[in-house]
Every structure is written in structure tokens, then in C-alpha cells.
Amino acid sequence: MSGPSSSPHVMQSGATSGVNIKLHPLAILNISDVYTRAQCTSTGSEVPKLIGALLGTESNREIAIVNSFELIYHPSVMSGEDVDMSDSGSSGGKYVLNTDFLETRKDQFKQVFPTLDVIGWYSVGKEPSSDDISLHAQFASSVETPIFLLFDPDPASGTQALPLKIYESATVTDTTGEISGEGKFVELEYGIETGEAERIAVDGVAKGGAGEEDTAVAHLTTQRNAIKMLYDRIEILLKYVTGVVNKSAKPDYSILRRISSLVATLPTMDAGEFREELITEYSDVQISSYLTTLTKQLNVLSEYAEKHSLVYGQKEDEFMGGPSMGLRGGRQMNFDMGGGRRRR
To answer: What is the pLDDT of residues 103-127, one digit of tens each?
Structure first.
């Protein structure tokens, strides 16, 4: 529980129902998301009043706040003065809850999450106000003994606690036996409870600010470090076993038994299907390698053929009667191949 509240609508001490409240991160994330969207889409300087319903389970004195959804309201002509919380139908605040929308959404969520019920409501602000007192009284007409969660969107810097408080209607009996403290809240203690899926989601949200490239690099770096650590440790074991075999290291049978049990836990790969798949993969890799080598050799051969044609093709033309041999000045040159005299 946080420090004492300065709001006149919160009792500093009082009798509570003694419930044990467990708050799940999903409800907090939903409320934070609602406020963020309202802040981004609001045209004025102030964010409008935000309210919603809390979904969860209640068993004896155990309450679990699991989820939440938004609600709508209508403005009231009332000035917003305090009301008697024992009157569930009062609406002395500036806002009137749309109960039809509440019932519709409750039925829709009931179809998807049959184990969850509406156990209370939430709002956004620093301290409870008279409008919250009025809205709580309106909720009491639809939900029996609702709880109230107040989310602070702008907590003080350096605060370690979560920026939220949970209240219930104050019920204090004075010395005369009459109930006092009506129209006020009393703060309740709560704890955080997370499931495996929620832990993964919260971790993903916490790391969601980086770009895709940074995320990929971080993921690959983590994998590389893990593989390197595994490789180093396997190398140490291999050196030790090699030393024992070579009788250069003193055998420790306890360590050897642990190494043997570790090796025994590895899956065996002698199945026929595995060998067939391995041979297929090996053949595919070899064929790809051969095709790559063949393509390179064909490229080299093509370049060699072009160079050969460029060099030896010109000499062949000259030998067959090119411009430098056979004809000179338009006259035919005759050669005596038998050693006789040349005829003119």
C-alpha cells in the first residue's frame, strides 16, 4: 500500500472487507493503452474522463483482476457534489454511466471468457474525486460490492511503486452502532500475479522500442553467445576425455559418469527415416555444390573460347588469304616450292 492519501474522499483508516486482491499485468496494460490513445487523439489540453470495467474472478475473499474494457458515459447537469453511497441509484456527479453499454459489453465478454465477471471499475486520475464517488454508487447498482482502481498517469519521479491504487466503499461503525464514512473510499492492499503468457508479453512490450534490425542483431548475438558457451564447454569435456584416454589426465569416475549420462540423454539418430532424410539433404547439398562448380567452369570455358577465337581466328583469316598475304597490289604472288627459279 502506498502512503496516506490527501483526498477528502479517502478515509485514512477504516474497516475493510479483508479481501486478498491479485492484479494481473494485462489489466494495467489495457488501462495504460486507453489513456495513451485518449491522450494522442484528444483535441483539447486535457484528456477527458476515462472509465472502464474490471474483469476477474472472486472466490470467498480472493479477488483476481485479470482484464478490463472501456466504458462510456453521458454528461450530467448536476454540479458534482458528494452523494450517499448507500443509495445505489444516485448520480450526483457530472457523469452518468451508460448501463446499457455496460450490460452489452459484459455479455460479450462473458461469451468469450465465461469464467470472468465484472468485479469493479477503473478511472484515471491523481486522487478520488466526488465524481468517482458518484460513479461508484452507479456501479453498485449493477455490481455487488465493486472495487475501484485509480490509475495515476503522471506519477512522481523516483517512485518505485506502481502508479495505481485500489479502493472499496468505506464502512465504519462508530460507538453508537451507526455506520459512518459513507460517501468515501478506503484503500486496499493488492499484489501482482502474472502467468507465463503475461510475462512473455510484458517482456516483449518492454523491448518493443528498438527497430527490426536492432532486434534481429540482438537476437542473433544472444544465439551466438549461447552457442559459443556450449562449444567451449563441450571442448573442455572433449579435452578431458581425450586426456583420460591418452592417460595424460587422471580419471575422475564421478565426472566420467556424469559425462556418460549426458551423452546418454542425447537423442539417437539411427532410425531409417532419419538416415534417408540425411542422405537426401546431403545429396541436395552436393548437387547444389556441383552445379555451382559446373557453372563456374562453363563460364571459364566460355571466356577461353572467346579469347581463342579472337587470337587464332585472325591468323586463320590471314592464312586463307587475308589482306597481308596471298594478294599484294592486286597481283598474285607465285612461289616455287620445288627449288626452281621464280617465274615472272
So the answer is: 999 999 999 999 999 999 999 988 8
Query: Where are the strands (E) in the chain, listed by range?
Result: 10-11, 20-23, 51-59, 62-70, 73-75, 95-97, 117-124, 147-151, 164-169, 172-173, 179-180, 185-188, 190-192, 327-328, 331-332
19 DSSP β-pair partners: none
Query: In whole angstroms, how far apart are CA 170 and each of 10, 60, 86?
Result: 8, 19, 10
CA dihedral 130, 132, 135, 137 (to 10 degrees): -70
Q: How far is CA 97 from CA 78, 82, 164, 317, in A?
A: 14, 16, 22, 102
Other Cβ atoms within 10 Å of 30 Cβ, number: 18
CA distance 344 to 341: 10
Task: Give residue 317's Cα distance to chain centre.
Answer: 74
Q: Closest Cα partner for 187 from 62, 35, 66, 9?
A: 9
Mind listing the pLDDT tens digit for each residue in 206-247? 666 556 667 788 888 999 999 999 999 999 999 999 999 998
**Gyration radius of the chain over CA positions:** 42
Query: CA 300, 306, 310 angle in degrees (round to 5)?
Result: 145
What CA–CA distance (Å, rounded) separates 69 from 52? 5
